[in-house]
What we know:
Argininosuccinate synthetase, chain A, domain 2; binds arginine; Rossmann fold
Amino acid sequence: xxxxxxxxxxxxxxxxxxxxxxxxxxxxxxxxxxxxxxxxxxxxxxxxxxxxxxxxxxxxxxxxxxxxxxxxxxxxxxxxxxxxxxxxxxxxxxxxxxxxxxxxxxxxxxxxxxxxxxxxxxxxxxxxxxxxxxxxxxxxxxxxxxxxxxxxxxxxxxxxxxxxxxxxxxxxxxxxxxxxxxxxxxxxxxxxxxxxxxxxxxxxxxxxxxxxxxxxxxxxxxxxxxxxxxxxxxxxxxxxxxxxxxxxxxxxxxxxxxxxxxxxxxxxxxxxxxxxxxxxxxxxxxxxxxxxxxxxxxxxxxxxxxxxxxxxxxxxxxxxxxxxxxxxxxxxxxxxxxxxxxxxxxxxxxxxxxxxxxxxxxxxxxxxxxxxxxxxxxxxxxxxxxxxx
Length: 389
Ligand code: ARG
């Protein structure tokens, strides 16, 4: 029998995928990666079993997600098109790794997913799967089947004895993990429309936030956040806590029109409270510690790194090489950043590091100045030499 491992969320799309694949003679094994989207393991397993799935894998990958995917991107400073902290994009190569591992374990020749033919996610999953094992064949039911609307899918589910929740589903397509939430479709498809207030789940409306600022301190070691408000914290709890704290201050709402890999522009809303705070804090720490040439060159690397992640090129030699460069720049990246969060805003109000390159004796305009101002004269003559008339 043909065996397929299906990336399964338990939603309508992937539930229909189960039935569709079974109709085509596949034995379906489902695979769900827990990246912090708040799944109820028991319920999801039950759901899969009700669709006639014999094996339903649910794997907790929260730690791996943060340590091996999110933090490398944070150290890189990777933000797509200057706005998107890449939560969804960073999850896909990890899910692909999981799918391949289960396929090997179960001796399955096929992998399936519930991505459409218009998005980035299909590319990310399939490029990674092929980079890990090109013998695995991919089936993408949503690119093939005749189910055009949500109603078509519901009818199909009923006809196949799949129970779908009676609750009216929101008109939005969303994706959630520890690093953020992505929201698209519905009225958001017109970039002229302001986002309706009810789309947000992780962030409070800035106007309704407390009238007092919230102060936070974040401690870094080797470019990775390891302390929150002076207390050592493991990755998952640090990010969870920061999402709550920053989200409660309305920090981390992003509204953008982005260029998809498949050639179309799309309007997206993101909520990324922890990511927003940590990118700012990390960058502020780098401003203190990196030398000028490294700092400026690293900006170019950040841009490229974000494009690689966005475009599904995680499992590639260039990405691996850039990681080595980035890690080299992070060796001395330790210190503490103080932040002030207030009604949707987050600013740095203090920076401290034992590895700081900032020299007060050179910068000061007060007494104790060690800068040799007389040397400036000759420097300027030579610097401006090519342009003299
Ligand atoms: N546009 C984002 C990306 O390509 C988010 C996609 C989110 N997926 C979703 N089902 N809403 O990474």
